[in-house]
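Entry 14. Ran structure prediction on the chain below.
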Amino acid sequence: MSLITTPDFITKHLITQTTCSPPNHTLVRHYSKIHRKEIYSVHSDNQSFDDLNAQIEFPFLGQSRYYFRVVGFVNGLLCLSDDLFGYTDTIVLWNPSIRRSLTLPIPRFTFACSGPFMFVLGFGFDSKTNDHKVVRVAYAQGDDGYIVPPEVEVFTIRSGCWRDVKTTVPYCATENFWTQAFLNGSVHWVAYKLTVKSRDRSFRSLIMSFDMGSEEFGDLRIPESLVSMSPMNMSAAVFGDSLSIFHYGKRIWTNNCSISVMKEYGVAESWINLFDIDLEGGLGMVLSCRRNDDVLLAAKGGELVSYNCGTKASMNIGMMCGTKDAYYVDSYMESLVLLIEGNEVVGRKARDAMSSSEDGYPGDEDEGEDDEVENNELWMLMSLGPSLQIMIGFEPFG
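Output, structure tokens:
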């Protein structure tokens, strides 16, 4: 015990896990309407997607309205945020392989002190300091949309606290309900830059990055064909080992998704349109790329589907069914991160700081349990649109 709990051993173990063998296991999170809980399981990334009988005990049952948002999975550590159905300010770091977790303190910028706002989270690893960090970029709600520059805070495991970051952020990110893309030491989100001349407004979509080491923001150009597209319909992701953009025809009830990949990181000319996926046949949200180059998707009916972009054949895999918006898929690895710090509640238990905005949830307490979560998912997705649309000049959702 004295050996494996030393920082040196934990670091060497992490290096071994990340460099010695390619990942061949997949982590899947889904929300089971039958059991009314989120379920985490590990599978072999083979043809049959075998369940390894490694369903992970989830220690936070009942501590979110329905389920947490998975911000990211880095070095065997999950970052969870209870922000999908209201302002709760609850962020948890959880290592499922060693059953250790850390609940973060309440950030400084909250609904209680600042009123309505929108924020994005980033989670990653700073290799220079050998520390994991969470960055929170919060945009206050103004009369004409979200206010730039935002308030930026960074939490590090070693310090155990939030601190303000004073840096220039000339963009507005839009990924409140999408996962991040952590690659090359930086977190990436889809964002846009707004230009106002007289009463005319124009925008350009781009990728905003935050370097976990230098704690500075940057930007990356996206394919020219997407620059004028609605940033609300795009999501930054890691596809294979490359930075990518998932572009949906529209945010809700979409019928297609294109996947663009940056073959050489940082080189705008290296963007290629890799796949165009027709979602008309009941397919829903794109989740991840498999080792055999198939794509994992969540079907509109809640099944997990493997899709071959060449043959356009799809196959249900895994004995699971949930709500399509609750799925999260990533390569699985084990680590000893949080072995020293874990289970020290730095902040407070989840849900202790639930704001009064919870009263604003739609739905009837008597409505069917199977429909309630999906109705709330739809309401939250639609509620995100108006402020962004007003700010950048889009027509409201029809």
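Confidence is low (pLDDT under 50) at residues 349-367, 393-398. Will compare against last week's run tomorrow.
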